[in-house]
């Protein structure tokens, strides 16, 4: 158990709390069946996620002005629909597909583990998603957050320090009173550089057969757990 104990625990969301890949592939496959659209939906989802970091880097570098993740996702989707030669989609279809990120399903341990942690700590997401995306996701998936920290609160994307330090500022806490919990070692390394406590748990199925990293902790994080329920147990919740 880390010392000092955190007052708040914030979570990376995509991949750490929710299964973005499985959720989107399942939803889009069902959508394609309903509409009679035959497409490589799994390939589209993987390419969509691959566009995630490069699109945010365009914002970080100043190449484009601040842009919400929803809008970055939509720009990537419009390009990929053409690249994957998917035809017959209306504007309403494209809006519906893009909002699939609002409807992601949690990993099996997520809701129960978060509910346990909520009894003892302030909990919330610290995600590159925008507040509306994360709020809708929480309602859809039953995620029991106390507060929602989206990138649009800070005008920055992780791993910019303004995100991690912004949580401490908004909660009126010192950085070492806040813990970031995530399945991504790089996210935790950036949080630690800002003075936050850190907790790792693996999600080895996040990228399906394409997973190449984050199978295990690559540093001595303050807590290393099997999943969110184990994290709760280790923190006495």
> What is the rounded Rg?
18 Å
Main sheet record: 5 strands, parallel
- Report the mean per-residue pLDDT as an integer: 96
Beta strand count: 7
The top-level CATH class of the largest domain is: Alpha Beta
Concise summary:
The protein is an alpha/beta fold. The chain has helices at 20-35, 41-50, 52-60, 69-83, 91-98, 110-118, 131-141, 161-171, 185-193, 228-234, and strands at residues 8-11, 18-19, 105-106, 122-125, 178-182, 197-200, 223-224. The chain has ten helices and seven strands.
Structure characteristics:
Rossmann fold, DNA polymerase, domain 1, 2 domains, five-stranded parallel beta sheet
Tell me what you see in this structure.
The strands form 2 sheets. This protein has a 5-stranded parallel beta sheet, sandwiched between helices. It has 2 domains: 8-19 and 105-234, 3-Layer(aba) Sandwich (Rossmann fold), CATH 3.40.50; 20-103, DNA polymerase, domain 1 (Orthogonal Bundle). It is built from 10 helices and 7 strands. Helix 1 (20-35) packs across helix 2 (41-50) and helix 6 runs parallel beside helix 10 (228-234). It has 237 residues and is of the alpha/beta class.
């Amino acid at each position: 158990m880390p010392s000092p104990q955190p007052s708040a625990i914030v979570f990376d969301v995509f991949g750490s709390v929710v299964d973005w890949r499985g959720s989107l592939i399942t939803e889009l496959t069902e959508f394609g069946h309903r509409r009679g659209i035959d497409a490589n939906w799994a390939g589209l989802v993987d390419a969509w996620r691959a566009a995630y970091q490069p699109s945010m880097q365009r914002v970080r570098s100043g190449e484009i002005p601040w842009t919400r993740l929803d809008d970055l996702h939509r720009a990537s989707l419009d390009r990929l629909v053409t690249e994957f030669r998917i035809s017959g989609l209306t504007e309403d279809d494209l809006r519906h597909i893009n909002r699939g990120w609002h409807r992601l399903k949690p990993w099996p341990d997520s809701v129960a583990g978060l509910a346990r942690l909520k009894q003892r700590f302030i909990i919330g997401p610290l995600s590159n998603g925008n507040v509306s995306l994360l709020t809708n996701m929480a309602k859809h998936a039953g995620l029991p957050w106390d507060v929602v920290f989206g990138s649009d609160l800070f005008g920055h994307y992780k791993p910019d320090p303004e995100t991690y330090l912004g949580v401490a500022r908004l909660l009126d806490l010192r950085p070492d009173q806040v813990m970031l919990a995530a399945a991504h070692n790089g996210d935790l390394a950036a949080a630690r550089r800002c003075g936050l406590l850190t907790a790792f748990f693996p999600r080895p199925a996040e990228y399906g057969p394409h997973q190449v990293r984050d199978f295990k902790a690559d540093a001595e994080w303050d807590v290393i757990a099997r999943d969110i329920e184990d994290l709760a147990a280790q923190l006495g919740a």
